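Lecture 7 notes: from sequence to structure.
We start with the chain below.
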Amino acid sequence: MKLYSLDERCVPAIKRVREYYLSVPEWRKDVEEGKMFGVLIYEDSVSSGEEPLPFLAAFSGTLGGKTCQPGFVPPVFDIQGEGRYFLEEEAEISAINRYLDSGQATPREVCDLKHERKERSRALQRWLFARYSVSNISGEKSSLLDIFAPAVPPGGAGDCCAPKLLQEAFRLGLRPIAIAEWNSANEHFCPPCISRCRPILAHMLRGLNAEQDPRMVDYERAVNNLQVIYEDEHLMLVNKPSGLLSVPGKEYLPSVESITQCLSVHRLDQDTSGILLLAKNQEVQKLLRAQFEQRLTQKQYEAILEGEMPIGQEGELTLPLRPDIDNRPKQVVDHVNGKSALTKYRVTDNRDGHAHVILWPHTGRTHQLRVHMAQGLLNPILNDRLYGNGVTASGRLMLHASMLSFTHPITLEPMTFTCTPEWIEPRD
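Predicted structure tokens for the same chain:
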């Protein structure tokens, strides 16, 4: 069964669904803003002729303000139709918020109402996700509360297209062949999301010969390649592989922090590999973070750039940076409102048409090295999906944190660690 690559047999169904939602004026706003739609084809549902036989279609969340619309499968749990308790409780929570925002509450009332709001929200969330019960082809049912345990399911879990389509297919006794989801704003094919759908699909796809998610293959490889460089009773240093999160993010994925059960001191971008420092308790974390904030640490990176540069060229880059509000997480150069950023660099070699550089960041702005290479040197880091000009067969961002110096927060011993990037053969 295909979910992560487009099955051409879905194309006629996609065309029909697209024609349908474009014909309804009441849905125009949702469609233009980018609504996820999906189709499911099943055994014997595709004819040999030009006209496709019946298929299942779905939309994510609501369409035109409603959870149910003609021509689409129903939701896993219909809040509007079956969730009267949810809607009533939600209204009560909204009333609390309005009263708190009014400024009329006394300090004691504020404290009590915030506690009540928290408890009500927590109970309501558990009530809701307990009623999202999903099946698999064997008829085994499980609630989202159980699927995500001990974590709390993220908002919107169960309302994406894939769970809706599979739930209806199993209810009707159909055997799925493929699912295709796309964004109505750009019509790009989109595989099921990781944060909300991956845990749900792990249950729903049981018993089917389903295509493996290539994103997870790469991620699991990164998790398995996490290496401990140094460890004592106070701290740990690891060599983080490219592709592994430093800290938990929006996606329902492991991170260095969750794997090691240590506390982050600083971060590396998900696509960046190299030395990452972690603390084993909050006091050590606080002391180490102070060193980074006061710029008492020294960091060195190695990178491969898209094009060649004169060997031995060196200098400083000082382009100020700020977030691109309309295109997060990208950063932009802003000489008026940007925060100061300083990177020193030296070109060490040219190989296969690419410059190899050593980088010393003296500030720690988001994507600082990536933007400074792309816009300061006009030579982006190889395979930079945000600031580069394409991705080579290797795929990974060619940026590696190769050295870190700091003072041990307990012993006060100066410590320096190095870690050679995977693309460089070990030095003698």
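Points to note: The radius of gyration is 26 Å. Residues 237 and 277 are 5 Å apart (CA to CA).
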